Amino acid sequence: MQDSKLYTLIGIITVVLFGAAYGATVIYSTTVRSEMASSTPAIATYNNPGYGISFDYPSEDLLEEHEDVGVDTITITDVLGEAGKISITPFKEDVKILTTARVHKDLPNLVLQDVKDAYVALTVPALTFTDVGTDGVSSQEVWFVHGGYLYQISTRSTATMLQKQILDSLKLPEPTLDSSVLAGDNGS
Q1: What is the mean pLDDT of residues 105-109?
Q2: pTM, two decimal places
Q3: d(C-alpha 86, C-alpha 74), whole Å
């Protein structure tokens, strides 16, 4: 009789433990799925009608536009600091495909690592590379010429998801004969 009570007690304890383990697994699994869903960042879309470009970026990041003589820059800052920037510079040369040699013409000391040819917006040839800055901080670079402008997309090496998000959503204008119209340059 004592053996059957012992077996019954062991059976009850086993059922309770398995039930608790199953319940904990369901709660953990639901919590992890919920945290993953809530950690997926909301998306914002940057649109610049002057250049005719748009792209997506995480809405919790800060996006700022900076105008300077000869270059406009869009910076994206996350909790770690500057995550990326896009510099847009007038480029009046008849260059359709940017090459390492052409980059070194203006920046002879720039060290380009892991150089690859790629395409942005499906049809625009681009040069991608890693730049190890003079401060030792590396960045992922995507440079291309389109519609009379040089675009330089630079992201912190740890911000690869930001670069992917920008490149996957990047929309560029169709090239025009007079690209100065895109920037709103009325000649004054």
Answers
A1: 91
A2: 0.71
A3: 5
